[in-house]
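Quick check before the chapter quiz. The format below is the same one you will see on the exam, so make sure you can read both the input and the output lines.
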Amino acid sequence: MRHADGPMVADFWFDPACPYTWITSRWLLEVAKVRPVEVRWHVMSLSVLNEGRDDDPEGDPEGYLWVPVRVCAAVRKAYGQEALGRFYTALWSADGEQRDWIGDLRAALAAAGLPEGLAEAGLSTEYDDLVRESHAEGIGLIGEHVGTPVVAVTGGGGERVVFFGPVVSVLPRGEQAGRLWDGTLLVAGTPGFHELKGRPHQEPEPA
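Here is the expected output.
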């Protein structure tokens, strides 16, 4: 997939509580500054992904991770994917400071110009079906062997490249972000490609 193919759409499925996913999302916004890319926002859920497992890889026995993703689904349903993107941004940066974890749901909704009452969706099962449907759409493109995020890139000619990640600990900016984008599309778009890994993970730096 080359830039000459025209504008590209990057559909981005994310669990809002994952700090590595947050960095990947900021990378995509950096990419959009230097490449012809439009980002569209969708929810997925680590809670859904890990259902039925004997272990608890997220260390979430109380099910807290359901709360922010339910609110995201409520925002997406009522106000659309652009509002979801605003809310996601505010959830990690509503007070203007760099975070290493999500902030207050009501404050983030207000900062995104959305009704604070949507926070109540986090403690309800009303939006669970929407979470599951969106999750199934994203994970269905690549398989349950991956986690969050999933990115599906559609080029101007309609061709599609799907990948998990990339997982980075430090946010690439500017042309560095663009080069990572170019390389990711090249690798993920190679017929028969399955997996590429780098160094052992580091703790994510606030983006």
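If your answer matched, good. The mean pLDDT is 90.
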